[in-house]
Automatic annotation (TrEMBL):
GO cellular component terms, A-Z: plasma membrane; plasmodesma; side of membrane
Protein name, entry field: X8 domain-containing protein
Main location: membrane
Record keyword Lipoprotein present: yes
Family annotation (PANTHER family): BETA-1,3 GLUCANASE, CARBOHYDRATE-BINDING X8 DOMAIN SUPERFAMILY PROTEIN
Amino acid sequence: MPPVVFPPPTGPPSPRTGPPAALWCMAKPSVPDPIMQEAMNYACGSGADCDSIQPGGPCFQPDTVFAHASYAFNSYWQRTKSAGGSCSFGGTAILVTVDPSEYSITSTPCPVLQ
């Protein structure tokens, strides 16, 4: 016999109210650059818009693997999430609720996709 919950629920849980939280996919700062570079190469080859992070591109600065990977991961995830795309990249990325362009560690001057 299944366990009984007291008091029993009267119906389905109420739907969430308020605006949905904005999410961004960014690289984990603890991941070594060579591993992050591999994950970024995957993102760029699988649908991310990586033209902006190429030399001379509007999002090339700061020129770090972390900043470029964060941009590529978020680009990929924003483009593919509705079709089931994930923000994992082999454990090198994480979803955050604060716009990564507000982090001093990325200081990206680009508009962040959402």
